[in-house]
Amino acid sequence: MTKKCLLATLGVFLVLSISVNAGHHAAKKSSPEALVVKAYDTFSTGDTEGWAALHADDLTFTINGQLPMSGVHNGTQAVIDDVFGQIPSLWPQFHLDIVNVDVSGNNVYVLLNMTAENLDTQALHMFKVEDGQIVSFVAFDDTDSMRQAMKTE
Predict the structure, then answer these.
(1) Tens digits of residue pLDDT in 21-34
(2) CA 111 to CA 101: how far, in whole Å?
(3) CA within 20 to 30 Å of 129's CA: 4, 51, 95, 109, which one?
(4) Cβ count within 10 A of residue 123
(5) Are residues 138 and 125 in contact, defined by beta-carbon separation less than 8 angstroms?
(6) pTM, entire model
(7) How far is residue 48's CA from residue 25's CA, in Å, rounded to a whole number?
C-alpha cells in the first residue's frame, strides 16, 4: 500500500470515528412505547412532575363512561388535579399492570390489568405521541366494574 493510499484510508477512518462519536452524544428521543411505559412508571410512583414532563402542555385526556372523573380533561395539571387526585379515595390500593403494548405509527395501545379494593378487571388505553411527547390519551376502561367497586363515602 502506498503512503498516499494509507493516509487517505486513515483520514476516512478518522472522519468516520468522529462522526460516530459525535452522534453518540446527541440527545435520544424515546420511542413512543418507551415514553408511554415511562408515563405508567411515573404514575405508579406518584411522580406527577415527571409524569407531566412526558406530556404536551395541551394534553387531551379522555375518560369514557359515567365515573366522577369521566369526560375530557385539557392540560396536565387538570389531569393531576381532577383525575389522579380522586383515584386514592375512590379506589384504595389502585394499581395498573401492563399486559401488552402495541404501537401503530404515533399511536400506542396498552392492555392493562387494573386492580384495587373490590376491583380486578382489564383496561385498554390509547395514546397519541408527537414530537417525543404524549399529546392525547383515551381510557377504554371497564367503567361498570370500576363504578361498582368505587368507594362512595
Answers:
(1) 444 333 445 799 99
(2) 6
(3) 95
(4) 18
(5) yes
(6) 0.80
(7) 28
Residues 6+ apart with CB under 8 A from 69: 63, 82, 83, 86
C-alpha cell of residue 15: 472522519
Listed in sequence order, the residues at least 6 apart from 146 whose beta carbon sits closer than 8 Å to its beta carbon are: 65, 67, 91, 114, 119, 121
Helical (H) or strand (E) element with 68: none
Q: Average per-residue pLDDT in the chain?
A: 86
CA 138 and chain centroid, separation:
12
CA dist., res. 141 & res. 122, Å (int): 7
107-116 and 95-104 as β-strands: parallel, antiparallel, unpaired? antiparallel
The H or E element spanning position 43 is helix 32-45
Distance of CA 53 to the CA centre of its chain: 10
Distance CA 48, CA 55 (A): 11
